[in-house]
Structure formats: structure tokens, C-alpha cells
């Protein structure tokens, strides 16, 4: 069953990428005015699709959980196991959150006498292999962390110049994912340091997701598609409105580079960590989903509120993130004070569009999306499904759509054109 759907996905991706590579732009939807320069630039995908690492992973953005945003270095094998259990019992795992990722601080501060990176015996006494076995027994996957420098950011051993041995070790433990950080890098260019680990992971023969964490310093969107399955485009997120919105805007600049096989990574989710309110977290999750960002939960899944779980479990928003077309949505229009009334949108499979009306002012406002701003011909009739109210709010909207949006809040929709003005649907 899993194998069969994998084959279907690979076949459709191959057909899709062939058409992309040939044209260098996506097959634009029939209802878009491709001859109109403004609209064809709107969802520019000219850098998409031909810089693939090709390890079979990341056909859609990765989903899972990581220790860092909530626990930082306060981790141990118990909390990882309890989180794996909680991912199952909350239903999050069955919604696609399957990677259980251990961030910095899992390894002992020095290599052993054989030069091997080993788990901290105080916090991971049973070892990473035992943890991988546990996580796998639940149908989940295990991630570890290292650094393309001589130390990690928390001054544990890094993997620079030790790529081959470390990768073999992780593979022998059954690791499925590597986040690879950028501290203590000796000033060597990332274009030299990151490919070495790609090749080392590949040489193990074990398929491992490769997540670059270069903080966006050397514009990794421009080169990392050949190297990793995702690349951080920004500095670390923190649990504040200013951090989250700043990062969204930076990540937005690289939209044309994302696609199946390799994604822009604006860092992990802060939803549920307490520094933002319900509306702000809803916006954070909606925009991350629309931007085809990795959805890596960063809160304590063992102890979530109903609001947090409602946000993280929104199937319809997750489906936008995991849409097989794999085109990053982006900001297409803004107005109002400080341009805070924003329209973000992106194409989806089956000729649909996803749209977020995002109010970045603190007062409630009415935000209007004109069809011309989101790439629809003005005369087209659209059915609007509200992904937070979970219902169709209009069967036939024409020309534009307006909604009242809470301060620091958002509304999110899928737009399905009721008829096409061209023939090829
Ligand atoms: C494991 O880590 C969790 C989270 O930081 C902590 O609450 C717990 O006390 C730790 N357990 C042990 C045995 O150290
Ligand atoms: C190694 O790289 C090749 C070429 O990109 C790819 O076909 C293969 O699937 C990779 N293998 C692993 C284990 O990642
Ligand atoms: C959080 O991020 C913002 C914006 O990037 C930054 O100005 C601030 O210093 C950060 N706060 C902390 C505690 O790191
Ligand atoms: C659970 O989370 C709440 C905040 O939402 C916090 O006050 C409480 O201490 C947490 N409980 C545990 C056991 O961590």
C-alpha cells in the first residue's frame, strides 16, 4: 500500500518535473492570464525543479517535531519516547507529523577514543539505536543533529572533516533525518562544507532526509537544491510576533526556488509555546503551510492546550502544505497602514488556489483580495472554502473577496474556479 502510493508519487513527480524542466516554468493554470507579464511573474517558479538532490525524499515539505524550541538542551531519552507516544495519542502522527527530531545536545561533549560521536551517557543511556527502534516501532522516524563545523552551537563535537564516519554511525543506528547546523565553521564556505555531508549520507546507502541549517547567510536557496532536502533561509525563530513576521518576509523572497525535493525552511513552529496569542499562532501556522515550509512542531506535545492542538491538527491547512503541486505561496498584495493588510496566495493542484488574508495590524480590518491580484481573471466565478471555519462560505464569488480579519489574525481559503475560460482543464 505504502509502496504503491510511493510509486504513484514518483511517477507523477517525474512526469511533472519533465514538463517543468522543459519549460522552466510551471504549467500555469488555464484560468491565469499567462500572456500578462504581471500574472506570470506572480507565481514565478523559474528556479524550481531542476536543482534536486534526488534521494527520493521531500516530495512535500517534511512534518514532525523537534526538541529545540521548547526543551533546548534539557533533553533525554524519556522525553523523546514520551513525545513519540504523545504524537500518536494526540492524532498528530496520523496527520503526517512523523519525524521525531533530536536537536543539539544529544551527544557527549567529546568523541570517544576511537574518534566516534557517541550519545551522552547521562541523558541517553540506552543509546540512539534503541531510541530509533522505539520510534520505528510506532511507525515514526528519528532525526539527529550535527554541525558543519568543528563543534555544534552548544559545543558538542561537530562533523566537519568527519562526515563519512559520522554518517555511517547514524545509518547503523537507523537514523532517518539530519539537521546540519553552521556553528564553528572555521570560515570555510558552506558550498564546500555542506556537499561533503550529502555525499557521506548518500554513501551509507540509507536514505536520510538532509536539512541544511546555514541560517540563510549565503543565500542557500540559490545553491542548496543540489545539496539538501531543505535549507534554512533565516536566522533562528523565537516565540515572538516580531520574529515570526520578520522571518516570514525573508523566506518569502525565495519562493521561486522551492519545489518537490527541496524546500525553503523559515525554521520550526513556535505554536503552543506561549509567546504569541491564538490569532498570531493561527497566522504563523497558516503562512508556514502556504509557504510550503517544513511543519516541525516545537512545543511540548505531551502537554498541549486545546487551542494549540486545534491549530496544529487543522487537516485542511496541512493539505495546502502537502499539496503535490509543491509551489510556494507568497505575498501578492498589501495595503493599509505599514502595508499591514496583506494577501498571500499560491497555486494548488487541480486548478485551485490557496489564499491567506493576513492582518499584521493590531486592530481588526477588512481585507480585500481582487482577482487580478491573486492571478485570476476578473470574470471567473469561484467557490470559497474557509479552512478555519471548515465550510464553503461562498459558492460563486466574482471579481474580489473581502473579509473582516482580527488584529494579528488571518483567514485562509481554498478557491476553486467554477468554470475555466480556457479549454484544457
Ligand atoms: C528528562 O527531560 C525532561 C524534560 O526536560 C525532564 O522533565 C525530566 O525530568 C528529565 N528526566 C530525567 C530522568 O532526567
Ligand atoms: C544517492 O544519490 C543518487 C543520485 O542522486 C540517488 O539516485 C540515490 O537515491 C541516493 N541514495 C541515497 C541512499 O540517498
Ligand atoms: C527574537 O527575534 C527578533 C527578530 O528577529 C530579535 O530582534 C530579538 O532579539 C529576538 N529575541 C531573542 C530573545 O532572541
Ligand atoms: C503544561 O502546560 C501549562 C501551560 O500551558 C503549564 O502551566 C504546566 O506547568 C505544564 N505542565 C507540565 C507538567 O509541564
Write the layout of secondary structure elements.
Elements: H1 2-23, H2 37-42, E1 63-66, H3 68-71, H4 77-89, E2 99-101, H5 127-137, E3 141-147, H6 163-173, E4 177-181, H7 190-203, E5 209-212, E6 230-232, H8 241-252, E7 263-265, H9 278-290, E8 295-297, H10 306-312, H11 315-321, E9 330-335, E10 341-348, E11 352-359, E12 365-370, H12 371-374, E13 381-386, E14 391-398, E15 400-405, E16 410-417
Parallel strand pairs: 1-2, 1-8, 2-3, 3-4, 4-5, 5-6, 6-7
Antiparallel strand pairs: 9-10, 10-11, 11-16, 12-15, 13-14, 13-16
Helix pairs in contact: 4-5, 6-7, 8-9, 9-10, 9-11
This protein binds 2-acetamido-2-deoxy-beta-D-glucopyranose (4 copies).
Residues 238, 240, 242-243, 246 line the site of one 2-acetamido-2-deoxy-beta-D-glucopyranose.
What can you see in these coordinates?
With 425 residues, the chain is of the alpha/beta class. The protein folds into 3 domains: 2-42, no CATH class; 63-321, TIM Barrel; 330-417, Immunoglobulin-like. 29% of the residues lie in helices and 21% in strands. It has an 8-stranded parallel beta sheet with strand order 7-6-5-4-3-2-1-8. The chain has a 6-stranded antiparallel beta sheet with strand order 9-10-11-16-13-14. A two-stranded antiparallel ribbon has the order 12-15. It is globular, with a radius of gyration of 21 Å. The two termini are 29 Å apart. Mean pLDDT is 90; it is low at 1-38 and 421-425. Bound molecules: 2-acetamido-2-deoxy-beta-D-glucopyranose (NAG) (4 copies). Residues 54-56, 202, 205, 207 line the site of one 2-acetamido-2-deoxy-beta-D-glucopyranose. One 2-acetamido-2-deoxy-beta-D-glucopyranose is lined by residues 54-56, 202, 205, 207. This is Alpha-galactosidase. Residues 1-22 form the signal peptide. Belongs to the glycosyl hydrolase 27 family. Its EC number is 3.2.1.22.
